[in-house]
Amino acid sequence: MKLWDPGAQPERTSLAWTRTTLALISTGLLGVRAAPTTSGAVLAAAAVCAAVAVLSRRNQHRHDARPRLLTAGAPVVDPQSILLATASTVAIGMIDLLLTLSG
Predict the structure, then answer these.
(1) This model's pTM is above 0.85
(2) Which of its termini does the chain have fewer beta carbons within 10 Å around, N or C?
(3) How many domains, in total, are found in the chain?
(4) What is the DSSP letter of 86?
(5) Is the residue at 1 inside a domain?
(6) Rounded Cα–Cα distance for residues 3 and 96 (Å)
(7) Class of residue 10 by CB neighbours under 10 A (exposed 0-12, middle 13-18, buried 19+)
């Protein structure tokens, strides 16, 4: 008995993570634009690059492992990636807020 669909579900998950990554990038770029100093812009850009790099790496690893996990009946949910995306979004938002208030 097959418990998973090899077609649309993995593609939808991949697209959702792509949208999440793009949202992080756009938020970070707004922070870079709002930065009153060059050092603030560098800080915002570094935070965005770090968050996107870590999320992209984790998501690629999970995407590669997904078929093996599904066929083994193991859970595919990755709470660490969800927490990392949330923490990155909050951190970038806080940096943007601090840069806006200091400018």
Answers:
(1) no
(2) N
(3) 1
(4) H
(5) no
(6) 43
(7) middle
Residue 54 CB neighbours (<10 A): 14
In a domain, 92, yes or no: yes
4, 49, 94, 99 from 29: Cα distances, Å? 38, 10, 14, 12
Q: Which of 77, 92, 87, 70 is nearest to 16 (CA)?
A: 77
Distance separating alpha carbons of residues 17 and 94, to the nearest angstrom: 22
Confirm if 32 and 45 have CB atoms less than 8 A apart.
yes
DSSP at 2: -
Find how far residue 53's CA is from the centre of its chain. Answer: 8
Residue positions counted in the chain: 103
pLDDT at 45: 79
For the record, the structure tokens of 1 come out as: 């008995």
Q: What is the mean pLDDT of each run of 10 residues along the chain (103 residues)?
A: 59 77 78 77 79 77 73 74 80 78 72
